[in-house]
Amino acid sequence: MKRIVTVFFIGILISAYYIGVGFYQQFLGFQFLEPLFLTDRLQLLFTNDVKTLELFYFTYPSLTHLINIPAAFINPLWAPLITSGIVVGFFAAHIIVELFSKQLKTVSVLVTIYFLTSPVILSIAISGTYLYLFLILYYLFFNFLFRYTRDYTSYNFVMISLCLTLFVLLDYTFLWIIIFIIPVIFLFSLFNFKGYEKSYIGIFEELTQNRVSARELLNKSLSTLLVILFTPVISFVLFLIINFWFTGDFMFFADAKTTMWNSQPELSSIFYQREHKDSLFFDGWKYSVTCCFLLSAPFLLSFLIGRKKLLFQIILFLVPIWLLYKMNSNPLESLPLEDLLIITAAGIAGFIHLFQTPLIHVFRSNKLVYLISFALLCLCLISEYYYFDFSKNPRDENMLSFLKQEVPFNTIAVNETVHYIQENIPRGSKILTDNSLTYPVSALTRNAVHYIDQFDTNYYLVLQNPSIQADYVLIVNTRYYDTQKGLKNKVNGDIASLPLIYQNEVFSILKSQDKNDDFR
Asked: Which pTM was predicted?
């Protein structure tokens, strides 16, 4: 009970720190696409009476959307920041208290400094993006794999299965890792086989000469695999069936332009005001390998410390295998931080596992361990900073600007448009827009005006003749979105004839009703 109270108290303090830094970041004008998307959907969910099913079930990643709902009762605009800050804060508190309970007080202090100053952890905690869920679920996945090597109970496999089930609602492609853990499951069953006290090779040799034992080993491996597979696979199949039942498309959640924050690839370049990079000239492999190296200090050290533990090393070996698979699946694109976080999470889980083994006595008695821990802290902070400095991801570049206290990339266009709508357009005015392109603006102004977008029942009717039922039209300038198939091409008639009342580098606002009125 005392430990729970300690975790709660420390978690509250660290969460308050993260949320405070996050509000300071927003005060400086920094915004990110994903939290704005979530804010827009949460506002629609609380105020819109139509398409509630689509908003609740098909907004993807669903786990991010659902976990933000409680904080949305406070304020939908703050919900992503509050949620990420609290979750990462309590995760940090759990790790700190876990180390302190192992009588590693100095190490727990160094880890506290890491969680408070790490560029990667700060990015996860204060940006309001879904990165914190990747960190937590990666950690849980490896933590229970390691835990099984200490405690051979089916409980650990059930928890791994539940972890993969949550990944279905976060990033269903992670289920492919099941293929890579099949050899690990076989080794688990082999090592846990009773009656033999030999090496792996000795056990395997003796089992293969005994047909009954070999069949028992195979059955044990298959049953374990079934326990892990059943819940996530069934959940994913049911999720696909629900999509097909209501939309006629199994992959509606991934294909529709309004269900995911990154469904419009060009929007990132528009929002962060960066020129679109030609992927044909981008060396994705070299970039990804460099990023992996910059984030791998804890992972490599835990791998070296546990060098005499075969199962431990084999589990850690899943990380480079998974990253190679991800890089090979799309070699022209770089690995985003949500994929690279598996390195950090596996490294943390590896250290927590080693502290549960007899190696804990070495950590307690050897003073050199504290010097190595301090050197590792410095190396992590420096290498993570260089990761952001090296990264070409607009989200990471914007976070680097915050760390350097520079001007954010997306302040001018979005904030000026929001300011114009709030100051110059009458409250309650109807604005026709393509939500998949302009949700960064609508998320910040939905309480001031009424948007006729894909979540309005009259959207496609108004598209035919916007001058009748809409007061204004909000569009993205074609110079930033040459392939725009939204309002530009759907509106019946020449939209260029509508008077332009406001324009900045990215957005334009047109007056669509009563063209003889004085334009505000």
From this structure: 0.91
